[in-house]
């Protein structure tokens, strides 16, 4: 009689970390980095910081959804391109980002600054209902009116572990 043995599987004692929920997160524009992401000819990018303000770690992965609305919450019919290259940044690898409490992840939003005002940028985490909103007043370049002037396609990166440094994305690991 032959005895067949099965390889032992390692049991992990590490707790499973769940996907981040909008209720665990807060968003803000990282003005220090956004101010560095202006290339003239109407090309701009905003660095959006997404912070885990909960007491538990959570995971972000993929590309967040995004909508732009006016002050009355009417959406703009703007095409959002997930992880598309932009004049100011390249397509980025999609990574699983473990966000510890008080830690932040980042996304870049690239847009043209010459068409119309949006008052609120909403970041949608995964397929969850609800969104994290950022009021955009004063977010555009100093010479422009309040709000992001957008036109055409708006590009958004996947979640990034680190913000750009002086307008440049950190090297891939």
Primary descriptors:
173 residues, mainly beta, Immunoglobulin-like, 6-stranded mixed beta sheet, 3-stranded antiparallel beta sheet, 36% strand
Strand-and-helix sequence, N→C? EHEEEEEEEEEEEE
* CATH architect. name: Sandwich
How helix-rich are the residues, as a percent range? under 10%
What percent of residues are in strands? 35-45%
Oligomer designation: single chain
Question: Could you walk me through the main structural features you see in this protein, from its secondary elements to its overall organization?
Answer:
The protein is mostly beta strands and 173 residues long. Helix content is 2%, strand content 36%. It has one domain: Immunoglobulin-like (Sandwich), CATH 2.60.40. The chain contains one helix and 13 strands. Strands 1, 2, 3, 6, 8 and 13 form a six-stranded mixed β-sheet that branches. Strand 10 (120-124) and strand 11 (132-135) form a beta hairpin. 32% of the residues are buried. Residues 3-10 and 138-146 have low confidence and may be disordered.
Brief overview, please?
The chain has 173 residues and is mainly beta. Helices cover 2% and strands 36% of the residues. The strands form four sheets. Strands 1, 2, 3, 6, 8 and 13 form a six-stranded mixed sheet that branches.
Write the layout of secondary structure elements.
Blueprint: E1 25-29, H1 31-34, E2 38-40, E3 43-52, E4 58-61, E5 65-69, E6 79-82, E7 96-99, E8 104-112, E9 116-118, E10 120-124, E11 132-135, E12 148-150, E13 153-156
Parallel strand pairs: 6-13
Antiparallel strand pairs: 1-3, 2-3, 3-8, 4-7, 5-10, 8-13, 9-12, 10-11
